[in-house]
């Protein structure tokens, strides 16, 4: 379960504009993707360590998921919202630390889903990761290259994300609601929403860079952008893995 703000807290232009070429934008994007992939690596490591040690038992009780799991789930949700709201108040180093902390929490939260895949068909983990990576790359490139203004999608994507969260919360009370066809539809919608979020965020990050002159703000924006893209990638992976393990 993940939440992200629709818009970055910058005065980004509303119409497409040309971004100055050169080392600036390339360095900025490299920083964003380095932080994002670093966070994904931390998540993978946290999940692996949890599954390979007795730590996984902390996530379960005899009847289902433990209170500790829900603390991690909702604590991570609260941390991601707070980090986004306060992104331009933190030093970049603090933002990076919060990003990595969130990545660790997400690694633990994903462990039950990964355990289901491991005991059923471990190949689905690789399949979900590869599909998510290809979709992410294509949508990120589209968002960066397109001259079409994607800002109109923001409110619709936010509403869709809220809908997914409400369905997820309802499934804690009525677990059976995500079974069958409805659960499959939810997974497909989740993949679509976060794929579109990837393109939307890439365009927003590109435009925001063009209007920021302060180096510290650009570093803060890079951390915020890495968090947004990390959330999109992990959410796509999660929904794809759920889809591949529907049985």
List the defining traits of the structure above:
single chain; 247 residues; mainly alpha; 7 helices; 74% helix; 0% strand
Written description of the protein model:
With 247 residues, the protein is mostly helical. The protein has helices at 23-52, 67-85, 92-120, 123-145, 153-173, 180-211, 215-244. It starts with 22 loop residues before the first helix and ends with a helix. Helix 1 crosses helix 7 (215-244) and helix 5 runs antiparallel to helix 6. It has one domain (23-244). It is built from 7 helices and no strands.
Spell out the blueprint of helices and strands.
Layout: H1 23-52, H2 67-85, H3 92-120, H4 123-145, H5 153-173, H6 180-211, H7 215-244
Helix pairs in contact: 1-3, 1-7, 2-3, 3-7, 4-6, 4-7, 5-6, 6-7
**Mean of residue pLDDT values:** 87
**Unreliable segments of 5+ consecutive residues:** 9-22
Please tally the helical runs, counting DSSP H or I stretches of 4 or more residues.
Answer: 7
Order of helices and strands: HHHHHHH
Q: Which strand-content bin applies to the residues?
A: under 5%
- SS content category: mainly alpha
Largest β sheet strand count, sense and barrel closure:
none
**Helical residue percent band:** over 70%
Query: How far apart are the termini?
Result: 21 Å
Work out the number of β strands.
Answer: 0
What's the number of structural domains?
Answer: 1
> What overall form do the CA principal axes indicate?
globular
How large is the radius of gyration?
18 Å
């Amino acid at each position: 379960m993940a939440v992200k703000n629709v818009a970055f807290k910058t005065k980004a232009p509303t119409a497409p504009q040309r971004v100055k070429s050169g080392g600036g934008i390339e360095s900025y994007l490299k920083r964003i993707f380095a932080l994002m992939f670093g966070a994904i690596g931390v998540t993978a490591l946290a999940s692996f360590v949890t599954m390979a040690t007795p730590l996984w038992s902390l996530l379960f009780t005899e009847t289902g998921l433990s209170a500790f799991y829900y603390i991690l789930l909702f604590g991570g949700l609260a941390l991601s919202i707070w980090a986004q709201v306060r992104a331009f108040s933190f030093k970049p180093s603090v933002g990076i630390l919060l990003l990595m902390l969130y990545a660790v929490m997400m690694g633990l939260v994903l462990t039950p889903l990964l355990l289901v895949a491991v005991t059923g068909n471990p190949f689905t983990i690789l399949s979900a990761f590869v599909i998510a990576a290809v979709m992410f790359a294509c949508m990120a490139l589209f968002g960066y290259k397109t001259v079409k203004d994607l800002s109109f999608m923001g409110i619709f994507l936010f509403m869709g994300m809220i809908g997914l969260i409400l369905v997820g919360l309802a499934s804690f009370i009525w677990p059976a609601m995500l079974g069958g066809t409805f659960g499959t539809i939810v997974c497909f919608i989740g993949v679509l929403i976060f794929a579109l979020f990837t393109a939307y965020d890439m365009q927003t990050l590109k435009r925001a860079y063009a209007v920021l002159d302060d180096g510290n703000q650009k570093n803060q924006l890079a951390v915020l952008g890495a968090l947004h893209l990390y959330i999109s990638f992990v959410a796509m992976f999660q929904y794809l893995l759920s889809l591949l393990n529907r049985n």
